[in-house]
Design brief:
825 residues, alpha+beta, Immunoglobulin-like, 4 domains, binds zinc ion
């Protein structure tokens, strides 16, 4: 027995020894070796360098939409300006529609395995069983003399081989003729564009985007952009002016990027009058095409056509929507130097929420983003309704969210409004502050979500908001499938990218603003970054450098941990010791001194609360040797006098999660008052795993809590308090939510999701689970009787009794994606 105890003791010693000697990782070392070095193009301050350059491409496009065959064709003339210091032997053009070609399916996000029973749409995602003739037909590429230019297509990109180099400083004008079959949005996973057919009235809504051959980016860090379009990673594009003519059936309405140049020939007299009213209406939208008129339009099936003409200046892309189903409303939004028109286009299937909420959401986003980033520069901002997914383009976005039987739950409505605000926000990031989405999805999604959330907080306080706590389930998830934020867009899992590229950078920026840098200084730095890089192409290093340069806060430790690792914050308040200074009379009593010392050394070791009272420590006069050659002496009795009767608390905090952060300590006093002390992250500089710090307090403390306001996304708050407290168990949360097993059993079953996969809901005793498609099961936790949350990532499951003629429905939501389904067994 003795031997066994000794053995156990030696293990304890060695494991403690190991914990205290965790390897130094240099968490405060500069990240200079992890980011590109500054140069004449990108300066060390994070601003564009004195020799910064970027290419430019102007487009003249004439396009025809063929409704009968669901095709679109175009003749476009590109003028490409080579502002680089390099002579170019060839150009690269993006052909994103080719991603849907049969031979490019390995790029697609075919998810999951083949199972005994699976629905047909899911199988189509996996196998592309229907051989749809997707992708471009390139009819010609020719120069201004009509001479053909050689080209070579490599999947989603086309190489244009020039007969002589395009010299630095020169421009080249050439033309491309093309056409493609517009894809059915329901046939492909991650369809951002395409058509939606409405069998009930035999009409179609066309969402036309990444539709014309576009110049790839050529820049100082990449040369030619060389990542193929693989769907998740979006776009890298050059700025330019657009002159676009779109020919559509004469009874269609076209919503588009740019200024409408021929209003008088495409709109009726009444529509023009209503538009004139809308331009003066700043408090509410004016209907340009009413629901009744849209219903009447649905019955027209004219074979005549009309050509809509648009101009757009200094945009990096161009998109439009076209349908005879559209209802159209518009209102004016006065900004500091000009008035922008906020508008919405939606089919009757979007009523009534779209007429109530869409244009208002556009207006709210325009106002808050203009205040928090820089003024919206464009003349119009349009929200177009679609079945699912939100997708952004300059001046126009396609936004998912429709009521079911005319009704929408609060949660679904919050999601829809959040989507509109978010997609409008993309006008700033990346449409103007034009980062490379294909490399760094977080740069536009994260920065946009950060300001979108501020818009939601300010304008929609009734809905839940993202805060540091929101990232906890993700951060405490499975590290083996997690990627750092600084991972190329296409290399993240579909189940992870929402948390990793949207939520985590947002929370990181919230921490910097609210808890590390301070609001005023941070906001100045954030605006500095946006203004430095508007209409330019920033890289992550330019953002990292600007935020440090404009705040004088060394943030390398933050970038290193939050952006380059998957570590999480978990601080443990391992101990709090409470001392008081013994009275003056005791000082000469050696015996007492020794006793007090022994007591002090043991203090707290075996104490889990403050019940035993403070340990007394004795202060002895400073010996002369302590002063060395100093002639002056401190007044020891005066110092001791300051300490008598005060409470001295020594706290020890362990870094369990690996991520260093400031340490916020809440002191709860016995008189019921509270006080907060914050130690900067730099306290971890010399010991990255454990710190000890001493405080003097007038009052007596009854409880100490780390990160009391959940500012730093601590993944385990059970070890944040002294005395330790028991957290409410999952069982209590379950009881409090009033979700009984009987109620949950009404939700249990298989749901068919509109997107073509299935979700299974089941119960194991009092634990609830959902299994979506073939991904692993996720435990869900009730927040109300109908709303449940997955803790591992930011996702909710909502049950909607009688979604479709009395059937039980389900809404799965993750980031700005939502999937609706109906129970089938
Ligand atoms: Zn987005």
């Amino acid at each position: 027995m003795q031997r066994f105890i000794t053995f156990l003791f030696s293990i304890l010693i060695s494991s403690t020894f190991y914990a205290q000697n965790q390897q130094y990782q240099g968490k405060f070392e500069p990240i200079d070796n992890m980011i590109p070095q500054p140069n004449v193009y990108r300066s060390a301050s994070g601003a564009p360098g004195k020799a910064y350059w970027q290419q430019r491409a102007n487009y003249k496009i004439k396009a025809q939409l063929d409704e009968k065959n669901n095709t679109i064709s175009g003749d476009e003339t590109i003028t490409y300006y080579n502002n680089s210091p390099d002579n170019l032997n060839y150009l690269w053009i993006q052909l994103e529609q080719n991603v849907n070609k049969k031979e490019n399916e390995d790029f697609g996000y075919a998810f999951g395995n083949v199972r005994d029973s699976m629905n047909t749409r899911h199988m189509q995602f996996l196998t592309r069983a229907i051989d749809f003739p997707a992708g471009y037909t390139i009819k010609y590429i020719k120069d201004t003399n009509g001479k053909s230019i050689r080209s070579l297509v490599n999947n989603t990109m086309m190489k244009v081989l020039l007969s002589k180099p395009l010299k630095s400083g020169e421009s080249l004008t050439f033309s491309i003729g093309w056409s493609y079959h517009i894809t059915d949005r329901s046939m492909y996973l991650l369809s951002r564009e395409g058509y939606e057919y409405f069998p009930e009235d035999d009409n179609t809504v066309y969402l036309i985007a990444h539709w014309f051959p576009r110049m790839a980016v050529y820049n100082d860090t990449e040369g030619w952009q060389n990542k193929q379009f693989q769907k998740l990673g979006e776009f890298a594009l050059e700025f330019g002016d657009y002159d676009v003519e779109i020919t559509v059936p004469a009874d269609h309405l076209v919503a588009s990027t740019g200024d409408l140049k021929n209003e008088s020939s495409v709109l009726t007299k009444t529509q023009q009058q209503r538009m004139a009213m809308a331009r003066k209406s700043t408090d509410k939208p004016v209907m340009i095409v009413t629901p009744e008129e849209a219903r009447a339009n649905e019955k027209n099936k004219t074979t005549k056509t009309k050509t809509w003409k648009f101009n757009a200046k200094n945009v990096r892309d161009f998109a439009f929507a076209s349908s005879r189903k559209f209802i159209w409303d518009a209102q004016a939004v006065p900004l500091e130097t000009h008035t922008a028109m906020a508008m919405s286009f939606y089919p009757k299937e979007g009523l009534p929420v779209w007429s109530e909420s869409s244009t208002l959401a556009v207006k709210n986003a325009l106002e808050v983003f203009s205040k928090e980033v820089f003024e919206y520069p464009y003349p119009v901002c349009i929200s177009v309704n679609t079945s699912n997914i939100g997708m952004e383009f300059p001046m126009i976005s396609f936004n998912g969210g429709r009521p079911v039987n005319g009704k929408m739950t609060d949660n679904a409505k919050a999601g829809m409004i959040g989507t509109i605000v978010h997609e409008v926000g993309h006008n700033w990031f990346p449409m103007i502050v034009s980062s490379d989405e294909r490399q760094w999805m977080w740069m536009d999604e994260g920065l946009n979500t950060f300001i979108s959330q501020r818009t939601m907080e300010e304008r929609y306080p009734e809905y839940p908001h993202t805060q540091p706590k929101s990232i906890v389930p993700f951060m405490s998830g499975d590290k083996s499938i997690m990627r750092p934020i600084m991972t190329t867009s296409d290399n993240d899992l579909l189940s992870q990218f929402g948390a990793n590229y949207y939520l985590k950078p947002t929370v990181g920026l919230q921490m910097l603003r609210n808890s590390i840098v301070g609001k005023e200084l941070f906001d100045q730095a954030f605006k500095e970054y946006a203004n430095r890089w508007k209409y330019k192409h920033p890289n992550p290093a330019d953002l990292f450098r600007t935020l440090e340069d404009a705040t004088a806060v060394d943030l390398d430790w933050f970038y290193r941990g939050w952006f380059f690792t998957t570590d999480n914050v978990d601080m443990e308040l391992t101990n709090v010791k409470w001392f008081t200074v013994a009275n003056e009379e005791n000082i000469e009593n050696r015996n007492n001194v020794t006793q007090a010392k022994i007591k002090a050394e043991n203090a707290g070791e075996n104490t889990s609360d403050f019940a035993g009272g403070p340990e007394s420590i004795t202060m002895v006069p400073t010996p002369d040797q302590a002063y060395g050659q100093f002639l002056s002496r401190m007044d020891d009795p005066e110092i001791r006098k300051q300490l008598y009767g005060k409470n001295i608390y020594e706290i020890t905090v362990k870094n369990v999660g690996g991520l260093i952060m400031p340490v916020t300590i809440e002191w709860q006093y016995t008189d019921g008052t509270n006080e907060i002390d914050t130690l900067p992250a730099e306290v971890w500089r010399t010991n990255e795993y454990e710190i000890t710090k001493t405080f003097i307090k007038e009052k007596q403390v009854k409880k100490v809590v780390l990160d009391p306001n959940f500012e730093f996304a601590d993944t385990d708050t059970k070890n944040n308090s002294f005395p330790k407290v028991e957290e409410t168990s999952d069982f209590d949360t379950f009881k409090n939510s009033q979700v009984t097993n009987e109620l949950f059993d009404t939700y249990v079953g298989t749901y068919r999701i509109d997107e073509g996969f299935e979700a299974k809901v089941y119960r194991n005793k009092t634990e609830f689970y959902v299994k979506v498609a073939s991904s692993p099961e996720d435990r869900i936790y009730p927040e109300s009787k109908t709303l449940f949350r997955v803790k591992e990532f930011d996702a909710t499951v909502e049950f909607v009794p009688s979604i479709d003629g009395g059937k039980m429905g389900i809404i799965l939501a993750r980031g700005d994606e939502r999937y609706k389904g109906v129970k089938i067994d």
